[in-house]
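Most newcomers find our protein records easier to grasp once they have seen one. There is nothing in a record beyond a sequence line and a structure line. Getting from the letters to the tokens is the skill we practise here. An example says more than a description, so a record of this kind follows:
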Amino acid sequence: MDPVEAVRVNLSAAERRVASLAGRRTVKKEWQAAWLVRAIECIDLTTLSGDDTEGRVRRLCAKARQPLREDLQEALGLANRRITTGAICVYHRFVATAVDALKGSGIPVAAVSTGFPAGLSPFETRLKEIEASVADGAAEIDIVITREHVLRGNWQALYDEVKAFKKACGPAHMKAILATGDLQTLRNVSRASWVAMMAGSDFIKTSTGKEGINATLPVTLIMLRAIRDYREMTGHVVGYKPAGGISTAKDAMAYLALMKEELGNDWLQPNLFRFGASSLLADIERQLEHYVTGRYAAFSHHAMA
């Protein structure tokens, strides 16, 4: 408990740190295009709607295989480079469909689990949901923590819960969704990050995308520094996934810059960094098309599903 109880957060300093990102000169021209291609490779292309269908999931999987139009890829000098999104993220109902649609692509399927998004289903039900998704072929599981454990400071209960989820994941990678918009303070966010990592999480993730407040740069800063401090203390490397509300290429660039400055180039890879997003890819494609042609296309030219 010592590192958890030792957590302190200077709110005004954190806000100043992330506010400075927008005021700096960002990367331009071909360097910006390169960063945006990397952003594509780090997207968990997601559909988590009540009206999801097998057809929509298959179309999304097709987009994951070829996220950038061939003519744009060729114009960027990347004709011989294989570009895919980092993963597809779906409800358990569509795991088997996505696995079939992505067969042979090497693109993993991530399943949201454990009573997503509230995480208030019976504990045994949540464990069985993880096991069912892994059995259907999910290579990654995005679990939801019980927020009450954080709000009441019951860190042992949170540790035990996440550890049990990790065990149920078996060979699948586990991303722990902290639902940071529900945790009230940045100190709670940092402490929850520590406990989730100590319990075996492969990634820590901001949000379900269903909260009133989802991923933000101040929350990201706090979670990245928890990852850095945890690595320095243990030698264990944990990935990071911001999710919810990241819908523009400009947003993506800010997150990539913060990742690079806080954790370095190693974390600008799909194995350690993912965006949880659906509409982000369309805007990145529009920006890359503008770089190539000098004109902006309508969003309908880059439909997701």
The chain has a mean pLDDT of 94. The beta strands are 43-46, 87-90, 109-112, 140-144, 173-177, 203-205, 239-241, 275-277.
